[in-house]
Structure formats: C-alpha cells, structure tokens
Amino acid sequence: MQRSLVFRRYKITVGSKLSSLERILQTKRNDFKDYQVSPIEDVKRYIIDCMKVVGTDSDHGKKLADVLVKGDNRGHYSHGINRLEMYMRDVKKGACKGKGEPKILNDFGATAWVDGNNLLGPVVGNFCTDLAIQKAKNFGIGLVSAKGSNHYGIAGYYTLKCLENNMIGISMTNTSPLMFPTRSGKTALGTNPISVAAKGNDDDSFVLDMATTTAAIGKIELAKRKNIKCPNTWGADNTGNVSTDPSKIMDGGGLLPLGGVEEMGGYKGTGLSTMVEIFCGILSGGAWGPNVRRWMSTTKEADLGQIFIAINPKCFASNFENRVQDLIDTMRNLPTANKDGLSVEIAGDSERIHEIFVDNLGGIPYHPNQIINMNEISHKYNVEPFRLLGSVEKLVKN
C-alpha cells in the first residue's frame, strides 16, 4: 500500500496527494494573509514574563507557555495565547495558585489519585502525565485521576507527551458548565474534551483532540473578537434556542452538544460529555457538572477533575505501530468525495499541516485583534510585547 503521509519533523511526503496538501497550505496563506507572525520562542518568553508579573513560579510559567504555544502552533487558537489573560487573572485574584506542587493522595499499582492543589492546569497535567507514563512502563498501563485542577489547555498536549514515550495516550477534563444538554433550557455540562493519541510509523500518528460540544467556547470568543457570525450548530441564546450571534451565546447563552440539536444527534454529544464527567469530576472527587465554577468566575476554586491514561502497546498484539499505520494509510487513501478533491484526513492531520505552515513562516501567525489584545496586556502589566516578523502576506512574498 502507498504510504500516504510520512512526517519527519515538519516535512511531508504525500505521494499523489501532494497537490491536496499544497492547496490546503495555499488556502491558509490566503486566509491568514493579514495575520502577524511572531517567533515561537518569543511568544513563550512573553507568556512566562506575564505569569511572573502576577506571582507565578518560572517553572510553572514555562509549563503553561509550552501548552499554550503548542495549542497555537497546532492551530487551536481558542486554547492558546487567547487564554493567557484568564490564567493571569486567576492567579492574580487568588483563584488559582502560581506556586506549589500537586500531591499524590493514593498510589496503588497502575493507578494514582492526585490533588492538584489548585495549581495551574498545565502544572497538574504534566505531573499526572509523567506519573501515568512511568506506571505504564512498570505495569503496562497507568491511570491517574486528579481533582483540584484548573484549565489545562489542549487535551492533546498530554496525549502527545505519551506518544513521545511510545505509549497510547488518553486524556479528558471537565470544564465550566457551558453546554445545554439535549432538551435542557439551562447549561449544566462543560465542553469536556477528549484526546486519544496512537503512534504509527515515521512520526506519523492518530491524534484525536475534540470537545464534546460542537465548538469550544474559545471559538465563540474568537468569532466575537473578529466580529463574525457563528455556524448555526455552535451555540444557543439564554433560552436554549439556536443562535449564530456570538454575543448572545457568550452573554447568558451557551454551547450546543456535539451534533447540535436533538434531531441532528445532539444527544450523543450529551452522552459523551456526561461520560467525561464520570471519568473526571466523579471519579476524582472534584467538582462536577453544574457544580463546577462558572466560566471566567474567580469567586471560588475551579476544582476541575481530569484523567490521564498511558497504555504500553507492547503488552498486547505485536506490530502495533505498523498496524496503526496500515489503518491510517487505508483511511487516507480512500476515494475522495470532496468537491475540491481533498483527501480523507486522519485526526491530527490538520494540526500537523498547521505546524508545517508555522514552520514555513518561521513563527506563529496571530489575528490583528489578538495582537491588539496582547499589546493591551503588555501595557497594563509593563511586559515587553512579543516580537513581530511581519504579516503572513509579506513573509510569503519574501
């Protein structure tokens, strides 16, 4: 079978699908032409400096910076630097701790129960993922449940860390109650994301990273910042009725479950979100469902529940990576029904293509309004802004 995609660092060999990849990159160059590009390391420096100002340890700030920049680098702008001000506010107001360490409450065989001690989510997430990986090396599987955590960025960051250690990675978290469960007139569940990562050959992989709502709240925020409408499957107003106005969705409204309304299968998204709640809020002893702190509130601790699972495939059928590769090659090589001739993608492909885009530019492209927001933070906290290399359009021409 023809190898459809080979990833070595950010280089791709796509066989007959090269034109498909180039068209996607060209579309990105057009869509992002007015975005301003900043070097990755300078964005990380900026995040660390901002977190220091509000009293965060340098090491904790670095962990946060790595997660946020990974989000932006993979095209998940809703969970990248767009979230920085939220983390700063939480630490500054004492709703989240900028110093300290997670605590293991119970350690038994392949499992562990952790108290995140209300630290930054990426601090808790890295601690628990490292612990799960070590247990998987010792026992074949490691399962770590955490309470007392906070927003931890993209769930895929932690499963990618498992991937780097030749493990299958699974991670989930509950979040603030932003979603209207099917038939409900009140928000009661979070976006409750799920990530699963499995390694193929030659740096290729399957990396699922998805919310159990149709869209993450950050995408609504970005739509509001860009002054554009949302698709009619993303959110609802304060009565639970579908809305495309990001302001109505943000101000008293909420998100729709994966699938949208009931007739479109929204009950499946509701079920998935509830499943995550059981694995995260219930199993860990943390807050759950409507009891989780309201979005952007700093009046109490978030007490999010999270789960981190690492599985050593060597404990099971042989040739796991080859078999994964056969699966994803088979999927990618299916006949396309796309009107533009674009090939079938595997979970993680769009993120890797965005990484190629970033690599070609020499930095991460940010929307002009995002740059304005970052400059406002810089002025408010007297932090040196991150350096800009120019617009995407300018850099592509050069």
TrEMBL record:
Keywords: Oxidoreductase. Transmembrane segments: none annotated. The keyword Lipid biosynthesis does not apply. SUPFAM superfamilies: L-sulfolactate dehydrogenase-like. The keyword Transferase does not apply. It comes from the Eukaryota. InterPro entries: Mal/L-sulf/L-lact_DH-like_ah, Mal/L-sulf/L-lact_DH-like_NADP, Mal/L-sulfo/L-lacto_DH-like_sf, Malate/L-lactate_DH-like. GO terms for molecular function: oxidoreductase activity. Pfam families: Ldh_2. Belongs to the LDH2/MDH2 oxidoreductase family. This is Malate dehydrogenase. It comes from Strongyloides venezuelensis.
